[in-house]
Amino acid sequence: MNELTSNELIGSKDGIDVVSGLPVYPLGHHEPRRADLDPKVAKRAERQVATMFGISALSIIGAITCYIVVPNDKLVYIPPIGPVNANHVTVGVLFGLGIFLIGTGAIHWAKKLMPDVEVTEERHTYTSSPEDKAAFGETFREGKQASGFSEFKLIRRTLLGAMALFPLPLLVFLRDLGPMPGTKLRETIWAKDIAIVTDATYRKIRPEDIPVGGLVNAVPANLLDVEEQDGNLNARGKASIILVRIAPAEIVSQQGEGWDYQGILAYSKICTHVGCPISLYQQRTHHLLCPCHQSTFDLADSGNVVFGPAARRMPQLPITVDADGYLVAQSDFHEPIGPSFWERG
């Protein structure tokens, strides 16, 4: 096989690209740009880059201002889209423009002012020798000098200003996360004498309705009223429980004295690992199994964890019966239900 020439390797003939018809230069060849030859052109390019960075900084400040000043319920008509939220549009456009101009300014800087000479380097082993590390440091210093970061003070200052302002909207937008939860993560709608009803049918439950080994999914009797008032399912997610009946002699321990009623125990239905709902109950072992990550809790022993990633036991709800013989809560849970959160002790 004959050796291929360098022109054939790069798809050219007589120095002309066979596809585009444009001149093909050997590797490392450098055609000076106007900014390389004319200081006025370089100065103009510097001003253009600095202008982009400066407008970026103003856009970011404008985004923060609009987020605070523009009413959250104000609508503007934009054809052909129609009515849109003015706060979202102004904040989105200005913040997006700020990000866009940082990128375009950096590209313009690289194309007009940074060196564009092609350089080749042989592959080397992953472990660098001390000489290579020293050479890299020298190359980095040379690159820093060649990039003009130290030379073009206007670009450097406007870039640093734009980059310093860039994270501020992200901090301001944290306000949209809403107010701190306060005690909401620690409380549910369970309270003293709240009747326990079956989930879905909302029928009150008597002790004789649950046989030994049985399990019933239940909720508080006031749940529907709370959901209608609040318009969400947050209360259901926190207040859902399971009732299991275990022979009293097989109950090893409880989280509080007298929290069961004739072997009927009430536990939160929400796994303490990541909050999955649980109803998989093994009658013989009294174990409750989470289907998501296989955390297993012993309901006959205070709901303690016996297997899996959960770090905390299942909270127990104290129960008793009312004057009519229906199961009711003695109080709310004595510890937060569900997964961990930052403020939990």
Provide an overview of this structure.
It is a single chain. With 345 residues, the chain is an alpha+beta fold. The protein has two domains: 32-118 and 130-177; 196-329, Rieske Iron-sulfur Protein. The chain contains nine helices and 15 strands. The chain has helices spanning 6-9, 34-37, 39-69, 86-112, 130-147, 153-165, 168-172, 223-230, 234-239; strands spanning 12-13, 16-17, 75-78, 82-85, 196-198, 215-220, 241-245, 264-268, 280-282, 287-289, 296-298, 304-307, 316-317, 319-321, 327-329. The strands form five sheets. It has a five-stranded antiparallel β-sheet. The longest helix is centred in the N-terminal third of the chain and has 31 residues, at 39-69. The radius of gyration is 35 Å and the shape is elongated. Residues 1-10 have low confidence and may be disordered.
